[in-house]
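2.7 Reproducibility. Because tokenized structures are sensitive to small changes in the input, we list the exact sequence used for Outer membrane protein beta-barrel domain-containing protein, including any N-terminal residues retained from the expression construct. No trimming or masking was applied before prediction.
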Amino acid sequence: MRHLYALLIAILPVFAYGQDALRKGHFEYGVFGGKQIFGKIYDERKMEAVSGWVAGIDLGYRDKSGISFHLQPNFSTFGSVWEIEESSTYHYRNEWKWSAVNVPLTARYTLGKGRVRPFAEAGLNLRLRTRLSSGYEFLRCGFCCCHPKVGVDDMQERMTHDPANILAAIGAEIDFQSVTIPIALRLTEGIGTYDVKPDPTPGSGYGALKTRVVQVTAGISIR
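Resulting structure tokens (single pass, no recycling of outputs):
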């Protein structure tokens, strides 16, 4: 019970500050877009260059500095390629593609009241994946001939879902006349993992998948 009291005492000033920011704040709205630059699908793999885009709207409630709250519905695409070539007789290429509707709700803390204000933000992202596919190219050469195989595995219907993700970002807000231009480097990462159930084809299932993406975005907001 003593620890609970200490926790309440610690968070009361933050809660009071947030309430004061809400009373003094105002609504703003805008649009943003950006590019996926790094990411991965398999949890055990390292981050690497990826492709894809993100675009959406930004609905905010804020004071000019301090705490603000943002709802940012957006649509995103993502592509990741995994390629193995051990020799001239063996080649494997796997290209993952997905798209999703995202609804992140974040809290942003902005420093200062000047024309350029750095910020950090974090929040929860709800994601509805609308596409997940894996294209593959496989070539193995034996003693007499080569055996190529090419195809696309559409896994949208066979996957389990990971709707909850965390989002964290750093960036800066730049005032230009009557608008604000936010520029950010953002990370989204699934809280858990998801699986793709196998179909009758041997080796068609995938497990312990976890999407992590780093994106750079810029937008424009009207106060």
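DSSP finds one helix and twelve strands in the chain.
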